[in-house]
């Protein structure tokens, strides 16, 4: 099992905009380098990419949830 951690503090978003589907849904397979969400810091958006491949992603952070740097965002099998 692996975790995807927040690279910086801010607000976590699972999609690029409210009317778009999430980058990944719970249970999806993830390849290394896939974008799984965005962190917004002072109106600047930063992509969160998976560093490792895995299956069955499970999000630990909710959409629009404030997160700290190093906080776990998702688990991968």
TrEMBL record:
It comes from the Bacteria. It holds the Pfam family Biotin_lipoyl. GO terms for biological process: fatty acid biosynthetic process. Residues 1-25 are annotated as: Disordered. This protein is a component of the acetyl coenzyme A carboxylase complex; first, biotin carboxylase catalyzes the carboxylation of the carrier protein and then the transcarboxylase transfers the carboxyl group to form malonyl-CoA. GO terms for molecular function: acetyl-CoA carboxylase activity. The keyword Transferase does not apply. It comes from Tianweitania sediminis. Residues 1-77 form the Lipoyl-binding domain. GO terms for cellular component: acetyl-CoA carboxylase complex. Pathway: Lipid metabolism; fatty acid biosynthesis. PROSITE patterns: BIOTINYL_LIPOYL (PS50968). InterPro entries: AcCoA_biotinCC, Biotin_lipoyl, Single_hybrid_motif. CDD domains: biotinyl_domain. Keywords: Biotin, Fatty acid biosynthesis, Fatty acid metabolism, Lipid biosynthesis, Lipid metabolism. Gene3D superfamilies: 2.40.50.100. This is Biotin carboxyl carrier protein of acetyl-CoA carboxylase.
């Amino acid at each position: 099992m692996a975790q995807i951690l927040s690279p910086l503090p801010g607000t976590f978003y699972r999609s690029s905009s409210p009317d778009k589907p999430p980058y990944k849904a719970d249970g999806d397979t993830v390849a290394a380098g896939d974008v799984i969400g965005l962190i917004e810091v002072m109106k600047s958006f930063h992509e969160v990419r998976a560093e490792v491949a895995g299956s069955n992603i499970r999000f630990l952070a909710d959409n629009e949830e404030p997160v700290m740097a190093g906080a776990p965002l998702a688990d991968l099998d």
